[in-house]
Design a protein that fits this description.
With about 450 residues, the chain is an alpha+beta fold. It is built from seven helices and 20 strands. Among the domains are: about 200 residues, Beta Barrel (Thrombin, subunit H); about 100 residues, Pdz3 Domain. It has a six-stranded antiparallel β-barrel with strand order 1-2-3-6-5-4. Strands 7-8-9-12-11-10 form a six-stranded antiparallel beta barrel. It is extended. The relative contact order is 0.09.
């Protein structure tokens, strides 16, 4: 509250008293004009005050007389009080007698409960806990960014001007093990003769390509150094559309460890991309995470993170003719080759040796299929390749074109879990049982998985 302004008053100024104003007729009752006012309250009961100009409010001179007080009833009141006390005593005596007869008076008194005094700030209040999305993005970026590296690849004939913004051979990677194991994209490192790795703290390293994934656009790179930061790996199988997604990478190779945020737009996407490692060829990528978090050249190989700071995917591609449509490889698909690298094994993917199409409502209608899930063995359109590759594990197991594979070792194949996704759980040499629907008859075929060739 602001203080009122003070004004100095000249004591020598002659005081001014306004002329009396006529009282409105409604301010008092004419019946009291000719009567004498009753005795005033003794002065020592009131705070000092001057004449009050509004008699109708009942204060000061001009106050209407009060109604005469009723006569005192002291003796009657005293008798009533004595009668009440006597009744209470009789009632208490009766209650005491009943309690004594029931034995209640002999029971021990319950232990006194401690009294806890709390202030208003300490008073517990039940409330709903809500995640602050802004702080979640900040915390996740702070935790994961040190483990996201910038990868610059160089090969014969590529200019090396340190003052130019590299347009090719630049990407990102994720340190997932303290021994220097880095997960990145295949198209970031393929064809490279030298890899330069730079951490967020500025430390440079020289990396080597440990292996290329033959199934997806993934690769493993190795560096050697002390005190390397490590990103925590999450579970992409538990993702749901609409949840928070955070992309961390080095767009254009110069804006290192940029953070963009969005949501998981969809799951299980399939796209066709130009294979930058094999000119003129197209590569199919399946079971991808779609996100609207901004992804640009240089983000490839970087981390897609959830709001808890765990890596859920590897940023891979972006729709060039649209905005807010990016794709990432689920981290669970990468886990087998990540584990193989740590154990010192050669990167290898299991292989059956068939071409197939996932069954969807359109395919059910087009081919009049008896079921709406699984995959059907079909030759690729526009190719001379057979549906079942000769001398492959599928050929040896007895698979044929138009067979419908419905399950692998009891795991149903459908839109939420594709054939390749199930196979990533196994290694070459594992023996599995295929549930196959052929001409209306259900068969069980035994198959021993082979090693996926590098040119597929």
């Amino acid at each position: 509250m602001t203080d009122r302004p003070r004004f100095d008053v000249d004591d020598t100024t002659t005081s001014y008293t306004p002329p009396p104003q006529p009282q409105p007729a409604w301010q008092y009752d004419r019946r009291w004009q000719d009567r004498q006012p009753p005795p005033q309250t003794p002065p020592h009961w009131l705070e000092p005050q001057g004449p009050y100009p509004y008699p109708s409010l009942g204060v000061g001179p001009g106050r209407p007389p009060q109604q005469p007080r009723p006569p005192r009833r002291g003796p009657a009141l005293a008798g009533l009080v004595l009668l009440s006390l006597l009744s209470a005593a009789l009632a208490s005596g009766g209650t005491f007698g009943l309690l004594e007869m029931s034995g209640r008076l002999d029971q021990p008194a319950p232990a006194a409960q401690p009294v806890i005094q709390t202030t208003a700030a300490e008073t517990p209040v039940e409330q709903n806990v809500r995640v602050n999305e802004d702080s979640a993005v900040t915390d996740a970026a702070t935790e994961v960014s040190p483990a996201v590296v910038t990868i610059t690849s160089s090969s014969a004939g590529q200019p090396s001007d340190p003052f130019s913004v590299p347009q090719t051979g630049v990407g990102s990677g994720i340190i997932y093990d303290a021994e220097g194991w880095i997960l990145t994209n295949r198209h970031v490192v393929c064809g490279a003769e030298q890899l330069s790795i730079k951490l967020l703290d500025g430390r440079p390293f020289t990396g080597t390509i440990y292996g290329i994934d033959t199934l997806t656009d993934l690769a493993i790179v190795k560096i050697d150094g002390p005190n390397l930061p490590v990103a925590e790996i999450g579970d992409s199988n538990s993702l749901r559309a609409g949840q928070r997604a955070i992309a961390i990478g080095s767009p254009l190779g110069t804006f290192s460890n940029s953070v963009t945020a969005g949501v998981v737009s969809a799951l299980g996407r399939a796209i066709q991309v130009d294979d930058s490692c094999a000119e003129g060829e197209v590569r199919a990528l399946r079971n991808l995470i779609q996100t609207d978090a901004s992804i640009n050249p240089g983000n490839s190989g970087g981390a897609l993170v959830d709001s808890t700071g765990r890596v859920i995917g590897v940023n891979t591609a972006v729709a060039g003719d649209a905005q807010g449509i990016g794709f990432a490889i689920p981290i669970n698909i990468a886990k087998p080759i990540m584990r193989q690298a740590i154990e010192g094994e050669e990167l290898a993917r299991p292989w059956m040796g068939v071409f197939y199409r996932e069954i969807d409502p359109a395919l059910v209608t087009a081919r009049d299929l008896p079921i709406d899930y699984g995959v059907i063995v079909l030759a690729p359109e526009g190719s001379d390749e057979p549906a079942v590759i000769a001398d492959s594990p599928a050929d040896e197991a007895g698979l044929r074109e138009d067979d419908i594979i419905t399950a692998i070792d009891g795991e149903r194949i459908d839109t939420t879990q594709g054939l390749d996704e199930i196979l990533t759980q196994y290694a070459p040499g594992d023996e599995l049982t295929l549930d196959v629907l052929r001409d209306g008859e259900t068969l069980e075929l035994e198959i021993e998985l082979g090693t996926r060739p590098g040119d597929l």
